[in-house]
Amino acid sequence: MRILRAADHKRMPWKNGGGETVEIAVSPEDAGLAGFDWRVSMATVATDGPFSIFPGIDRTLAILDGNGMVLDIEGSAPALLTTASDPLAFPADIPVAARLQDGAITDLNVMTRRNGLAHALSQIEVDGGKIVPLSSTTSLFLCHSGTLSFRWNDETGGLAAGDALLIENAAGTELKIDGDAKCYLASIITG
């Protein structure tokens, strides 16, 4: 288990050069944009435009802040994503264009290599105490806003806005959290 502090997240340009991304975690560690098995990042989208293409990758997107954006995904009807929307999964190797609704947004992006990995992303509201079952081997728990304390097995700690908790060998365990926060759980599934 590792706490990944917001101040330590890696900032880097988008693959297509159209903006900046904040990398929360990647596997293998220090993998580049062409060589990762999985990656969790945040990005600010300030203008309409195309998404970067990632061959062999599946992606899920959630809106963290802002008034939302419409995704035009090849072969699908346009999809409006807002902070109230469920995360949206789609292939990262087909053309996708974003149209902002009203100003810039910040999104959360989870990507896994299709050959051998999958993922799930869920939003979790914390208002008091909560127990979150962990079903995948690798779990990343992001505190987007607010603060919380946690207990996993015999380890305890706290997360502030932007901090994340990366738990390996998590399957079949529980994360106990207490606080007032909006969070996201990314589950990386092997198989």
From TrEMBL:
InterPro entries: RmlC-like_jellyroll, RmlC_Cupin_sf, Uncharacterised_HutD/Ves. SUPFAM superfamilies: RmlC-like cupins. Gene3D superfamilies: Jelly Rolls (2.60.120.10). PANTHER family: PROTEIN VES. It comes from Rhizobium chutanense. It comes from the Bacteria. Pfam families: HutD (PF05962). This is HutD-family protein. The lineage of its organism: Bacteria, Pseudomonadati, Pseudomonadota, Alphaproteobacteria, Hyphomicrobiales.
